[in-house]
Amino acid sequence: MTSASGFAWRKLGRVFNPADVPGRPWMREFAQGPATLLFESFVRVYFSCRPPADETGQYVSYSAFVDLDRGNLFRILRVADRPILGLGDLGTFDEFGTYPVSVARDGDNFVAYYGGWTRCESVPFNVAIGYARSRDGGQTFQRLGPGPVLGYSPDEPFVQSGPKIRRFGGRWYLWYIAGQRWKVVDRRAEPVYKIRVASSDDGLSWTRLGHDVVESRIEPDEAQASPDVFFSNGRYHMFFCYRYSAGYRGKERGYRIGYAVSGDLVTWARDDARAGIDISSEGWDSEMVSYPHVFALDGRTYLLYLGNQVGRFGFGLAELDGTLS
Amino acid sequence: MKWEKIGKVFDPTDHVLANNCTEFAQAPQALVFDEFIRVYFSSRERDPVGGKCRSHIAFVDLTKDLSSILRVSDRTVIELGKLGCFDEHGIFPMNVLRHGGRVHGYTCGWNRRVSVSVETAIGLAISSDDGITFQKIGDGPVLGPSLHEPFLVGDPFVRVHDGLFHMWYIFGTLWRRFLPGQPPDRVYKIGHAVSGDGISWEKEEGRRLVADSLNPHESQALPTVVKIGARWHMLFCFRESSDFRENRDRGYRIGYAWSDDAKHWTRNDAVVGIDVTPGSWDSDMLCYPHAFECDGKVYLLYNGNEFGRYGFGAAILL
Asked: A131: Cβ–Cβ under 8 A, 6 or more apart, which residues?
């Protein structure tokens, strides 16, 4: 791969830490998978959070939002006072979590795609992608049905998660990840997942591309997540994160942010050297950087991302020097 | 309809089966050859630790009058799924049909959950050796949960009519703890999907083909469809959704519906023409029906007491 010069992201610091928010026991820790929606006077950032683990160490996950002052993204105007969506009913795909979530405007409505979590016996969990709509300006959402909108297929057998909904050229695109295999490491089942994409005219009936979008770089079992696509200067820019399949909970083999570019939404050229953001020498993002989300606001381009322990301590913000080109 | 019972045809405890299976020959499914009838069924292996069961597919070759056993499979017919896959903990049942010189096997794969006992989905495997072994087209299912069919998609029965694949199957509508102290039980209903290639399916998305006869919590399972003349006949089994395992008054019986357009079905259990026989192997329960044609006759394979623990039997349509 021949790299054009890398992007220059200037880290602005941590924007939100759920530990600072009082009175919400369901938002005790984690603020994962940040995704923005722009309003006239504020930027709403959806994310997923967790109450404390139960007595067996198991978590459930909820999705919520924080509204940031459009003129000063470090000024918090409001934090959701309840989850935007309840957990699924007994036996449904999203009984134990709704994480992460991606929200888009659809006319006057807001539509949300989210990873729904269930618990399994031989592996710790399974995930499928759910769909919900909001009629109160994106504060609460209701499922269209009790099942997933994108489920398993012959070559996407499990763990469909991390949806990112986008609209390009009048068509809906859903980037997501699909599990490829469960790899047993030290007697623990670890999922290997790759970036996939589907497209749709109505947002409900999806046609899958049917193969991995981005080649694996660090190892064949590299896990890829958070495929965040942003259109700028005539090209599609994808920031995503990737990690090793084993030993990835620490600094050396944990998540880093990668980059790929496409002119046609089909063929992507991976070029991580251009991503332009890495771990810090100390602080909340000193061990890993992950779950990137790019958005433009008032002439500037920003990146939200997670730091250590995949967002356990909130998310931060970086600003691009120039534009994505 | 009037079925004359032939009696029990196969008892798995009389044979040595692959995969450490000792009991159960459930959901018999026929593949007719020139000289014999191959019947696939699901048998059970018990986990050494924990005691839970895994269903494996096996087959028995029978003479065409179903009176004699010619061969019992002694090797694995289809592997269970890999770690974390939809069919990791069992395949039950597998519906078979010939298509394009090969045999399609539509499987109902089982995997274990935590808050409820299981989840299922429908897979496809292909045989190029006349049904001795089957290879999956992928690790995942061809038909799984969707917006209005949220779980427990299973029990496929597939036939091709006028170039279109039709699948009758079941989908779950409810998991509920009906009785205090008991684990949750499920409710499922019969649905329908079509496909041009047998791989990519279009569901009717939550439409329940067959009306309930017991109550809204009736569970309906394993539809089988046979066309006789211009009319489509569907047999299936149905039961209460709680206290159905040992209470004979709440257990499986065989139900019936008919259609002249394969879309709208009229239920009429009163004419199904088969019921339990006191004092016999099917005295308490009738389940997992499978209708098929052979040499101009219509047969019914089915399980009796204890969901087929001691095998399956047959009846012939008069």
From this structure: A111, A112, A113, A143, A144, A145, A148, A149, A203, A204, B147
Which residues in chain A have their CB less than 8 angstroms from residue B116's CB?
90-91
Residue of chain A whose alpha carbon sits nearest to that of B123: A154
CATH says B3-317 is which class?
mainly beta
Q: pTM, whole model, 2 decimals?
A: 0.96
* pLDDT on residue B137: 98
Residues of B whose CB is below 8 A from A151: 144-146
- The CATH number for A42's domain is 2.115.10.20
- Give the residue numbers spanning the domain of A303: 9-320
Confidence of residue A2 (pLDDT cuts 50, 70, 90): very low
Amino acid at B18: A
A88 → chain B, closest CA residue? B150
Q: How many domains, chain A?
A: 1
Q: Which residues contact B167 (CB under 8 A, 6 or more apart)?
A: B106, B122, B143, B156, B157, B158, B192, B193, B194, B195, B201
List the single residue in B with minimal CA-CA distance to A128: B145
CB proximity A144 to B under 8 Å: yes
Q: Is residue A256 part of a domain?
A: yes
Is B66's pLDDT higher than 50? yes
Contact between B150 and A118 using a beta-carbon 8 Å cutoff: no
Domain boundaries, chain B: 3-317
